[in-house]
Amino acid sequence: MKLTRIAIGAGATALFAATGALATTLVQQRRMRGMETLAQTLPVHSKWWREHAKREGELLYVVLGDSAAQGIGASKPNRGYVGAIMNELAETTGRSIRVVNLSIAGARLREALELQLPAMRRLGPPDFVTVGIGANDIGSYDRERFEREIEELYSAMPPHTIVGDIPSFYIGAGERRVREANAILHETARRHGLVVAPVYSETRRLGVLRYALNQVAADFFHPNDRGYKAWARAFLPLVREVARGLRVRPVETSGAEASGSGAPGPGAPAQ
Known about the structure:
With about 270 residues, the chain is of the alpha/beta class.
């Protein structure tokens, strides 16, 4: 009887182990397929933003960032957080917006400095800027390098810039690095008078289980449409504050014009 129980226990343990191994394999296979699928969207999203940048607008909104700024993982490029910001700017200001999205999938701080920042300078002074970068620096995180590069980037940002902090990685060494990097990010932003969109807090609030179940794209890394709504919640209140200062102001009429006196207006007959 005792041997039977031991055998049953051993069999159950082996079954659970096999089931766990199978589940892990299936998840890894699904993730690989998801990564391949999302890789195919990279040129699609990049082209969409390049075409969109050709549209004229009264206000110039420039985007610096990585694949999240491209909207990778969303069903359409404009369903990421940048699309939500673009819509909010237009609605709050009542003005047309030209969006130049200089973000690059996979970009780290170094690429932002070497490629994106010079491209922004060539555009002339922007009316509004968002910066969302740093997540790709976590894998090979080096504190001194991160401090040096984020200082260089943030010190070059113009007025009306909102920077996003790094989203939560939820668990493990990655999460510990994110917290350290975000502390540096917040302090650097404070020194340069930049406001920080709390992407970390919004994504952390979701929790790893909820994020994994319905907030993540097929690669189990990038947000999906739902996941990007958390990013939008971090940015939009701050965007509204900036946008109110960019509204069209009504032309004031002088007292003389209001009373009908003074020089005739353009096209009016001489008295």
